[in-house]
Write a structure and sequence with these properties.
The chain is mostly helical and 154 residues long. It has helices at 2-27, 36-44, 48-70, 79-101, 114-138. It has one domain. Helix 1 packs across helix 3.
């Protein structure tokens, strides 16, 4: 059960990092048509605040908890590699389900080729943070080997 709690904390922190990057992207005017919170708000038929809450629930509960539960099954020799693989899987799921449901087409191609590329980069960063934080919180004291084979599968 402690591993799930660790995953939830790691998922929350990774979602904070992802959210900051999404806000920065919007503030810089990069691909304004790719507004994930706007898309979620429209899909949910609710306010942007509710969409942000949904975004954090997905990142914390689904992705953070899912990462903890599936950790031993995820390919990769380190927590970082597992986090990146998990982030890519989450991206793929978003590209084939959420994007089409939001009217952006498969892989978000309704927004052009930059949409899947940008969201892939964001999900790789999300996964990197998820894996690194999970390792730091779950590793025995003094074990800071995030980049090498680890023993967190149990």
């Amino acid at each position: 059960m402690q591993k799930i709690g660790t995953g939830l904390v790691a998922g929350f922190i990774a979602t904070v990092v992802l959210s900051v990057m999404m806000i920065a992207k919007n503030m810089m005017g990069i691909m304004p048509e790719l507004d994930v919170i706007g898309m979620l708000s429209t899909m949910m038929g609710s306010s942007a605040m509710t969409a942000w809450l949904g975004h954090f629930m997905i990142g914390t509960l689904a992705w953070g908890g899912g990462f903890a539960l599936l950790y031993g099954l995820i390919p990769g020799g380190s927590a970082l590699a597992k986090g990146i693989a998990f982030g890519i899987a989450a991206w793929l799921g978003m590209m084939v389900t959420v994007m089409p449901m939001a009217g952006a087409g498969l892989f978000g191609m309704g927004f052009g080729i930059m949409a899947p590329m940008m969201t892939l980069v964001l999900h790789v960063i999300f996964g990197s943070v998820l894996g690194a934080v999970f390792h730091m919180l779950a590793a025995p004291s003094g074990d800071d080997m995030v980049f090498t084979s680890d023993h967190l599968a149990n």
